[in-house]
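User: Could you check the structure of this?
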Amino acid sequence: MGAEESTGGLDAVAARMVRQVTMVQPEEPDHLLGWSYGGLVAHALATRLRADGRKVAVLALLDAYPLHEGPEPAGHCDRQREFLTELGVAELLGPERTRTMAAELRYTARLAHAHKPGVFDGDLVLVASRSAAAAHHPGAEWGPYVIGRTVVHEVDCPPARMPHRGPMRTVGPIPAELLSHAAGPDRP
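Assistant: Sure, the predicted structure tokens are below.
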């Protein structure tokens, strides 16, 4: 975590990533996908890229939702270790690394809660865990931050399991189809 992130929050993370994206891929359009906190970063990145005049053909988010500005809810910090266990990585990391990773997750949660998303002038595709969708009203939550359409695909898996092999058989084809359409008929 550099000084830039600690002073500028999630917007500073997105600004740094804009530089990286345009350096690695100078040609357009851009295709962005983010899961959870990474979805908030992808949205902020897409908003900045569009402000710079770049075309963003795909913005796909996996179980990512704008959070209400302000401090983290009470008890939220206690869930990071549980999340790492549910994700299946705590036993791989061991106790010390799990504590370090939990601290990183608490840091990103603070950035997410302090972040006020900008408005993206394109379409958003959200892949939502059916259980999270019931609690979040996903299309409506992104409404103030997206000028284009918000298309929601609900899948049957807990949010922490979404990037796992089994659920990815259902989740993966959704962004793959978007990329296929974005490439157009003349591109593979």
